[in-house]
Each structure stands twice: as C-alpha cells, then as structure tokens.
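**User:** Here is a favour to ask of a fellow structure person. Please take any protein you like and set down a full record of it. No explanation is needed for now; the record alone will do.

**Assistant:**
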Amino acid sequence: MIDFSSFPLIFLGDTHGFLNDFKKQKEIISSVKPEIVLSEQLQETSLLTKKDYDSFLKKKRFSETVSIDEVKNLVELCRDKKIKLVGMDLAGFGLTDKLIKITRGELNATPAEKKKINLILKKRERKQLVTIKKFLGKSDRPIIVVIGVWHLRENSAILPFLSDYLMIFPCSKNNRLLTKPIKKVISLKY
C-alpha cells in the first residue's frame, strides 16, 4: 500500500471522458483526504466556500470547452468533503471559438493555427505549473492535481520543474500512458 502522505503532490491523470476517471479520483481523494484539489478542467474558477460551490452547481453553462456535467462529480465530492477546489488553467483553455472547433475535430487547422495551438498549450502548462507551485506548502496534506494525462507525458513542460510527487494515471497492459481512446481494452490499470 502506498503511503500517500509522504508525497506533497499527487497527480491524477484525467482522460477527459474516454474512461470513468471519476472512479479513481473519488478513491484517491477519499483515501488522501486533501485540503486542496487543483483541477485543469475548472480552468480559472476556484471553489473555496459552500456558497461558491452552490453558485457553481446552479449554473447551466460553465465554459465553451468544459460542461458542468464533465466536472459535476468532482465538484460535488469536493463540496461534500469541504475541500478547496481550485482551477489551474486558462479560461476556455485559451482557445478562440475557431480553435475550439479545430481541437474538437470539427475543422481542419492551417499551419498557422497549429502553431497558435502549440503556443497556447505552452502558455497553459506555464499557468498550470505556476498554480501548482503557488499551492505547494500550503497544506500539511498532499495536494491532489487532477490534470489531463497528456500533461503527464514524458516530455511534459510541468514535471521537470517539480520533484517529490506521485503520478497516478491510466495505462495499458504495457504500462503506456493512455492519452487517447484505444479500440479494445485488454487490460487497464492505474
């Protein structure tokens, strides 16, 4: 059994919906009992009080890039456990309406748009890193960081600037990080 309390940061890789990520999030959050959870999906929104949570959950829309339904389970879990839930990304992930359509596969990107998306990804990861560093040391309990699995890749712009963390992410039978859906799940583990 892993002693979660020995790590100041615990990264939980999120597939943004192609797996049931919340099942693992609930398991780890319930076990760790953190005071703070950082979430990429919440973008620039912070939920620190019951009033913040209640107001957020009454919204019909949250963002052009993330629906209330995508974050509802995590928001309700953190509310019920009185955990501060802090967004750690750019609003709308820094994307324009056209770039959102491109990232969803609705439009093809020009070379200039591909370059723009890559620049935005770098800006997002800088924001994520700054937010993580801001909260390091702000709690005696580990800080949970719920972040897209892609940001936990080998050449991540975040991880080289941090130390002493635990990463929990979905992987294939060959221990390969799952960053996109696979056709047939033979074996899945975290």
